[in-house]
UniProtKB/TrEMBL annotation:
<dbReference type="InterPro" id="IPR007214">
    <property type="entry name" value="YbaK/aa-tRNA-synth-assoc-dom"/>
</dbReference>
<dbReference type="GO" id="GO:0002161">
    <property type="term" value="F:aminoacyl-tRNA deacylase activity"/>
</dbReference>
<feature type="domain" description="YbaK/aminoacyl-tRNA synthetase-associated">
    <location>
        <begin position="48"/>
        <end position="170"/>
    </location>
</feature>
<dbReference type="Pfam" id="PF04073">
    <property type="entry name" value="tRNA_edit"/>
</dbReference>
<protein>
    <recommendedName>
        <fullName>YbaK/aminoacyl-tRNA synthetase-associated domain-containing protein</fullName>
    </recommendedName>
</protein>
<dbReference type="InterPro" id="IPR036754">
    <property type="entry name" value="YbaK/aa-tRNA-synt-asso_dom_sf"/>
</dbReference>
Length: 187
């Protein structure tokens, strides 16, 4: 199989790679429902040493910057209550944590969740967190630009490997809320 974007040596339908994914991601693919069939999600094997966006794009090609997204875990706090959520924005942008995220979560303060919280709560590796397989009670805030992109490269739950997902599929993920302006230009 050839990947729909990028130049990867090993691309396969994600449901055929469940043993290479974390438990939560594999479970989400097994339970996948909706207008975009699960076999349209593609798993590509990648070098874990270049999993972070800048290194990944340098290694696999600069055109992927416009076709990739980052998934980050945020924590919104109001009083003694902390709410965890995930945000998906294009890799060439940053999450508007103190504007869109804070307001949407109804939080007085919002910030990126600590690494141990993000990995512990998701069951995924830092640098590979994906919106596929997040905890069911989380909000998943997705920038509209991600949904409007034909194919999007995103983490697979591990630092090794990525998923290539039709952009419109992000809107069908559990807890997904599509928002304009979630991703801000990098300063």
């Amino acid at each position: 199989m050839r990947a729909p974007i990028g130049d990867f040596d090993n691309a396969r339908p994600a449901p055929d790679c469940l043993d290479e994914l974390t438990g939560p991601v594999a479970a989400a693919l097994r339970a996948w429902r909706g207008p975009v069939p699960a076999d349209q999600l593609v798993y590509v094997d990648t070098d874990p040493a270049v999993a972070d966006t800048a290194a990944f794009v340098e290694h696999y090609g600069p055109t992927l910057l416009d076709e990739s997204a980052n998934c980050v875990v945020v924590a919104g706090r109001r009083g003694e209550t902390t709410t965890l959520a995930a945000c998906v924005v294009k890799s060439a942008t940053r999450v508007d944590v103190n504007g869109v995220v804070r307001k949407h979560l109804g939080a007085r303060k919002a910030s990126f969740a600590p690494m141990d919280t993000a990995t512990g709560e998701t069951g995924m590796e830092y640098g590979g967190i994906t919106p596929v397989g997040l905890p069911a009670d989380w909000a998943l805030l997705v920038d509209a630009a991600v949904v409007d992109t034909e194919w999007v490269l995103v983490g697979s739950g591990r630092r090794r490997g990525k998923l290539i997902v039709p952009g419109k599929a992000f809107a069908q993920l559990p807890g997904a809320i599509v928002l304009e302006g979630l991703g801000l230009p990098l300063a």
